[in-house]
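The instructor's notes for this session suggest beginning with a concrete chain rather than abstract definitions. Hand out the sequence below and ask the class to guess, before any prediction is shown, which regions might be ordered.
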Amino acid sequence: MMGFTWDACPSGIRKFVHDVLHDTKIITKDDMSGFYIHGSLAMGGFNPRRSDIDALVVTTTPLTVQQKRMLAGVFLRYSKQPYPLEVHFLHEKQLENWRHPCLYDFHYSEHWRNRYEKELMEGTHDYLNDEEKRDADLAAHITVINHRGVCVTGKPVQHVFPSVPRAHYISSIMNDFRDCLANIVQHPVYATLNMLRVYKYLKEGTISSKQEAGEWGLIELPSEYQSTIKKVMRSYTREKDDSFDTNALRELKDYLMKAVQKRVGEVNDA
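After discussion, reveal the predicted structure:
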C-alpha cells in the first residue's frame, strides 16, 4: 500500500482534518493565523491504519488557560477517532525571534491523554495553565513545514515561520535518533525508519518521510541489512508489526549509529 499525501488523500481524511479545524476555530475565533500540516500527510506516506496527523497551529495572541482547556477537550474527543493527532499551538511572537528550543502555548498527543483527562475531570492546573513551554522537536517540525508543509488555511508558510538554522534542525532530529537507538527492539518500525531519515538527511541534505527513508535504505544500505529493512517496510504498510530478529535489529542499529556519528562529526568539523 502506498501512502497518501494531503492533495491526494481520501475524502474521509480531509473531512476529519477540516472537522478538527472547524472546532479549533470556534475556540481561537479570529486569532488563528494558520493551520499547517507536517509529517507523513504533508510529505506522502500517510497510512490510515497507523499514521498520526501532525499539525502546527499559529495564533496572533497567546492562548488563555480557558482556551487551552477547551482545546484539550477537542483533541481528546477527536484523536484516534480514527486518526491519532499530534499538534502544537504557538503564537506569532514566539516565532518572531527564533530560539531553540522553541516556545509554544499548548501541545496535544496521545502521550498526554491520561493527564489531560484527569486534569479536566478534577479541575486542576498542573498541565493546562498559563505557562509557556519549550520543545526541541519544534525545530524539526518547522523545518519540515518550511520545506514540505501544507497550509490548510491561513497565511502562507513563508509569512509565518522563521528559517531554522541547520544546526538546530540537526540537534532536534538527533534527540529523536538517540531515543530510537534505545528503543529499536521495542519499536522496530518507528525507530528504524526515523534513524534512516536522519542518516539520509546527514548524507544527502534531503528531508524525507518515513516511507521515503525506508525506500532509500533499501537502495543505499549494505545487503546484510536489507532483509530487516524490507520487513520494516512491510510492517509499515500494515497495522500489525512482523516479528523481528533482535540480533538483526541491533546490528542495524550499530551500523546506523556509527554512520550517523561519522556524519555528525563531519558537520561539526565543517
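Then share the key points. Residues 202 and 264 are 7 Å apart (CA to CA). The longest helix spans residues 246-269.
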